[in-house]
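User: tokens in, sequence out, please.
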């Protein structure tokens, strides 16, 4: 059974900001970014254990063609997306969000 999927509010803000950044960079690129992130989060929702184990009891899936990690935690009733983390950013900046669930 698929679990519910929820974005932490800060992760949702990151997602929106990055989509806006890519769209400003090139028309249609923001939509491509959005589609790839949505595809990666769907994998996390359908197959939660499939994501690569990561720090702080989290897992990660990776959007194709973009240097990002979708960091999430598995809870009893839901999958919580903790960060839409650019690979070049300081690792673990999102760790204060890890228990929000």
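Assistant: Sequence out:
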């Amino acid at each position: 059974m698929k679990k519910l999927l929820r974005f932490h509010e800060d992760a949702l803000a990151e997602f929106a900001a990055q989509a806006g950044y890519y769209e400003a960079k090139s028309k249609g690129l923001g939509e491509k970014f959005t589609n790839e992130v949505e595809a990666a989060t769907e994998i996390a929702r359908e197959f939660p254990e499939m994501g690569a184990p990561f720090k702080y009891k989290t897992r990660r899936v990776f959007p194709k063609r973009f240097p990002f990690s979708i960091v999430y935690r598995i809870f009893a009733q839901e999958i919580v997306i903790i960060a839409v983390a650019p690979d070049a950013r300081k690792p673990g900046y999102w760790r204060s969000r890890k228990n929000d669930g």
